[in-house]
Write a structure and sequence with these properties.
Order of helices and strands: HEHEHEHHHEHEHEHEHEEHHEH
Strand content: 15-25%
Shape: globular
Helix content: 40-55%
CATH architecture of the largest domain: 3-Layer(aba) Sandwich
CATH topology of the largest domain: D-Maltodextrin-Binding Protein, domain 2
Number of strands: 10
């Protein structure tokens, strides 16, 4: 009996340092791995999130941009990092809805196996921005030009398989349009080429649209929202031409598998506290994003599955492959 009691005391003593570490997490800065380069919508909303989380966690939250392979480089970086709660992935459909696994050969991570979902912090609607070299004041007139000039209309995206690429593939399939996709590694270079007229168009998140509002060489012709939005007066919804069309991108947080449950819970609580703060919600709105409602890891997982079904089905239907 005495031996058993002694053993229990010893085990409890061994457990105490681990419990203490969990109770005090985080004790150092947190690395927020952003799957795309600076200036794109993922970078923009990630930095709003980092700024909101830092005071709630009592530690700096440092954005680390790791562009490449539509998020594959960032996802592999996080999947291989120490599961201690200090390396966090900005999760999107490419990495966490399994879309990249359908598009790319030999993806070096498994979304279900290698990550623990924490929660979704925002969504972004998208717009179609067209260079003024393409005639037509409306979305329908631009479509008419594309039909009259098969194969000549070029559109940029941040990467093969990015939501903005898939939106254009979906629009093209629904309307029977012959368009040429030009993928980029950096959103900033895609935007520079669009503004210069080296490509004709780009679907992009509203956060990036805000950055070029009023640019002389381009114009927005449609939004991927079910109805028009007051902050973009006069810009029609794609649903006015394609009934029922809607598309947005989600952004959330994920930790490496086997991360401490306490870190998952604390990070989720900090995120949700930020999402209840009207100042934080206004900060998202200022950059064109829609703050999520406070949510659980399970609710975030449900959203990833919705995108897996919609966009994964499109990838399979059109037999899309990333080279």
């Amino acid at each position: 009996m005495g031996l058993k009691i002694t053993r229990r005391i010893a085990l409890a003593a061994l457990a105490m340092p681990a419990l203490a570490r969990a109770a005090t997490w985080p004790e150092k800065p947190i690395r927020l791995v952003v799957p795309f380069g600076g200036g794109g919508q993922t970078d923009i909303v990630s930095r709003v999130t980092a700024e909101a989380l830092a005071p709630r966690l009592g530690q700096p939250v440092l954005a680390d941009n790791r562009p490449g392979g539509n998020g594959n480089l960032a996802a592999e970086t996080v999947a291989r990092s120490a599961p201690d709660g200090y390396t966090v992935l900005v999760a999107g459909a490419g990495t966490n809805s399994g879309l990249n696994a359908l598009l790319y050969k030999g993806v070096g991570y498994d979304a279900a196996r290698d990550f623990i979902p924490v929660g979704m912090f925002c969504t972004t609607a998208n717009m179609l921005l067209v260079h003024n070299s393409i005639p037509g004041a409306s979305f329908t007139e631009v479509i008419a030009w594309i039909r009259a000039n098969p194969g000549k209309f070029t559109y940029a995206s941040a990467s093969v398989g990015a939501i903005t690429h898939l939106i254009m593939e979906d629009v093209g399939a629904r309307l029977g349009l012959d368009m040429t996709h030009v993928p980029y590694r950096q959103s900033t270079q895609a935007m520079a080429d669009l503004l210069a007229g080296r490509v004709h168009a780009r679907a992009l998140g509203l956060p990036e649209g805000e950055a070029v509002r009023g640019a002389a060489s381009v114009r927005p012709v449609a939004l991927t929202t079910p109805t028009r939005r007051p902050e973009w007066p006069g810009v029609p919804a794609m649903a006015e031409t394609i009934p029922g069309f809607e598309a947005n991108a989600y952004f959330g947080l994920a930790l490496p598998a086997k991360s401490p449950p306490e870190a998952v819970a604390r990070l989720n609580a900090a995120m949700n506290d930020a999402l209840r703060d009207e100042k934080v919600r206004a900060a998202f709105a200022r950059v064109g994003a829609d703050a999520a409602a406070p949510n659980t890891p399970e609710e975030f997982t449900a959203r990833t599955r919705v995108d897996a079904e919609r966009w994964g089905g499109l990838i399979k239907k059109l037999n899309l492959v990333a080279e």
